[in-house]
Amino acid sequence: MASARQPAGGRRPNFIVILCDDLGYGDIGPMGGRTIRTPNLDRMAAQGMTLTDYYAPANVCTPSRAGLLTGRYPVRTGLGYQVILQNDARGLPLSETTMFEALKPDYATALIGKWHLGHVPPAWPPTQHGIDLFYGIPYSHDMTPLSLFESQGPGRALTQSPVDLPMLQQQFYARAERFIEDNQKRPFLLELALSAPHLPEHPNPAFRDRSDAAAYGDVVEEIDALVGRLTAKLNRLGLARDTLVLFTSDNGPWFEGSAGPLRQRKGGGGYDGGYRVPCLAWQPGVVPAGRRSDAIAMGIDFLPTFCAMAGKPLSSAPIDGRDLTGVLTRNEASPHDQLVLFDNEDPVAIRTQRWKFVSNDYYRGRLFPTDEKYPQLYDVQHDASESYSVANRHAEVLADMRARLKRARADFAPFKSSQIPAAFQRSASTHQD
């Protein structure tokens, strides 16, 4: 078990994770987007740090969220395959230690918004996982039946109410703001898991028809406005310096949205467009203003980072994430030697600080192995679009990256499911959230 250290100044910081659903790398100004107006995110980046080479833990929803909450590659959690469907009995095992549990009992905890880690017991309700307050929906807002649930802790009543889709993000934000107000005198961890801009869009009337990017842009501009309200609220309460806010997405864009210069989209093969997403860090006076860092990072890093900053020990379970405190506060290099990218439960790509190696891509409806005839090695510091393989110019690098992928496949093979989940055996659905 890792040893804990006392946080600087003796006060444990607050943590807020704003997790969007299917927001693309190129959808916001700090990542180079120009079509959708995001003045509040632009301001957040100017006052904090932009992580340009941050990766979601997976290229689709459920495994990505499992990785973020546990600090572990999703295959370890049993949720590495596809997403949880309505007729699915899978869920986040109670044996997993979530970031909420890792900060207990010192922190008030809340998950507000989209859960999508199991909607039947024992994984349901989310308050089974160290969450004091759950207010949200069980899965994506395009899945039915859909209700809005609230529970104030394990063993407490779970209330259910209808969903007003155009107002849903505002409802999530209002409940999050109330949680902050109620817990402003003690440390808290809040995940605000917005269900937008996942398709179909349901623009709030106050934002409808405002964006040049049509309904998708309207929804992203609403998200931007909510971020502005949140940072303003923290400033008014005098909590800004004591609160680390991380803004990101669970995976790349689906059928709409922009992956910016990156290749591919949500649910694709091993290329970056499905995994590499926006990430902004904001904590005035702690995270230096106006910094851009290309240090490789991933959502699995949130749990160990929060534990380090809060002076809390890690669990004895293997943690794949690393502490990003040095990156965020001192602009240090990445603590990762490499990141492994999975398609379902199989490693399909390796990213180091300079290099990217891709072994598989989807082609004509199947996962196509490229390495035997068409080795795909990219110098991503010069070719972020992964357009031109340099395998024939860097034989030693190619051999090293192949060896890394081989080791990753051997390391994670024991965690693979013996068969595909029953929900996918019963359904021909190709729905990917």
Question: Which descriptors apply to this entry?
Answer:
single chain, 433 residues, alpha/beta, 10-stranded mixed sheet, 9 helices, 19% strand, globular, disordered C terminus
Can you describe this structure?
Strand 14 and strand 15 form a beta hairpin. The strands form four sheets. The protein has a ten-stranded mixed beta sheet, with helices on one face. A four-stranded antiparallel beta sheet has the order 13-14-15-18, with helices on one face. Helices cover 23% and strands 19% of the residues. The protein is an alpha/beta fold and 433 residues long. The chain is globular. The chain has helices at residues 39-47, 61-70, 99-102, 168-182, 214-236, 302-310, 325-330, 395-412, 422-426, and strands at residues 14-20, 49-51, 54-55, 108-114, 133-137, 148-151, 158-161, 188-193, 243-249, 279-282, 291-293, 297-298, 339-343, 346-351, 355-358, 360-363, 366-369, 376-379. Helix 1 (39-47) packs across helix 5.
